[in-house]
Design a protein that fits this description.
alpha/beta, 5-stranded mixed sheet, 2 domains, Nucleotidyltransferase, domain 5
Amino acid sequence: MSRSTNPFRYFDSSPEVIRLVVMMYVKYPLSLRNVEDLLFERGIDICHETVRQWWNRFGPMFAAEIRKKRVDRMRSHTHWKWHLDEVYVKINGEMRYLWRAVDHEGEVLESYVTTTRDKAAALAFIKKAMKRHGRPQAVVTDGLRSYGAALKEIGNADRQEVGRWLNNRAEGTVKATK
């Protein structure tokens, strides 16, 4: 007997209604009870607790779908730029390096934590990001020489852009990470 992989299989409501409920709650600044009231006006009678449960269960799935569509759309974008940056942060009482890749719109693509700030760490981070998101048209970095060495080993050294204020987009994502 084959097991169904449909995530909506245990719910009486249709997947369209569940998606509508979750997207209303996420997209607009509404409370759970406001979503319940809006749906009741449209003939859908559900409890605010049902909205919360659906949001907890299906929210990450819908977010992953949206993120995947966005990345696929960005891959076809001719000016897809990545901004790479690393920052020294305290995690569980120990100081670590947090590497981040940010696209040209400011969306964090990838994060990676290491104990070192060398070529091997930069290479592992860049390979992980490229495996998941494909190759960018340009890679904007700060002056850290590990990026240049890692990109040279991969074969993307010609795509690297280094400048004093070019990497401000990646520098601004530190606040969201902390």
